[in-house]
Fold:
Amino acid sequence: MPYVCAKCGREMTAEDLKALPGVRCPYCGHRILYKARPPLIKKVKAR
Amino acid sequence: MNIRILEKDENSIKFILEDVDVAFTNSLRRIILAEVPTMAIDDVIIIENSSPLFDEIIAHRLGLIPLKTDLDAYVLPEKCECGGEGCANCQVALTLEVEATDGPMTVYSGHLKSQDPKIVPVSEKIPIVKLAKGQKLVLEAYARLGQGKEHAKWQPVSVAAYKYLPIINLDYEKCDQCGACVEACPREILELKNGELVIGDVFNCNLCKSCEEACDLEAIKISFDDRTFIFTIEGTGVLPPERILEEAVKILAEKADQLIEEMEKVKGT
Structure:
């Protein structure tokens, strides 16, 4: 679920975004979107 | 060689080491700091982190949490049969799964759950990260034995220091009880009681000789024996201080044996 709208908080994929020209939330039209953190697992050294 | 314990409590010891040279004492200090093994988190697998801190920052903080250590049950990964890949002999898993469901909260070291009840944080009150409502932290941390020389998180002490045992020599015949030395002493060791100069806690003297300088009559002399030391070890709670000293001595003995072995090899050529 890569993108999240800053206003209505609905999630959408890169595909969903192509619906409208330009960067716009397809549900509420707001133009600011956050890229969500991917669900991958990270191994980190505690140093 | 002789040891006399001066003070001892749960996390620290102060003792007098007699009839040893400074090279030996210093070697002990260096080994305590850099080579006595301790448990600390070294690998963190982050499954979910919506906290305000980066994964790496949280991992770094986890690494710095002092963990109670069991030197008899675990070995250094280098020396483990598994080759250091991580088996039950050289590794302990600790998990953390916290969500701020009811509002802002702080994640503490106490939230960590260990597979081995003996390998736990020394204190449960160490804050790791603060979460706002809805934020979540889920991770698996692996602790292993390591040495201070590799990373400071594996240092078993906060203090490992020594100084010479001071010798304060008062010539009662020369002394006129003027009290100049009493004023001069920055550690307030000297006192004028009933018109007589009394020497208090000699162990607290820092050998500054301010008292010697203050005296016009050369009645007080400060010296030290270069083979007698006051040694202080203050642990972080990961190991009992006596155990820290014990292990350091064992390691020093091993090094000495290694040296002899290598020298025997050279002798042959």
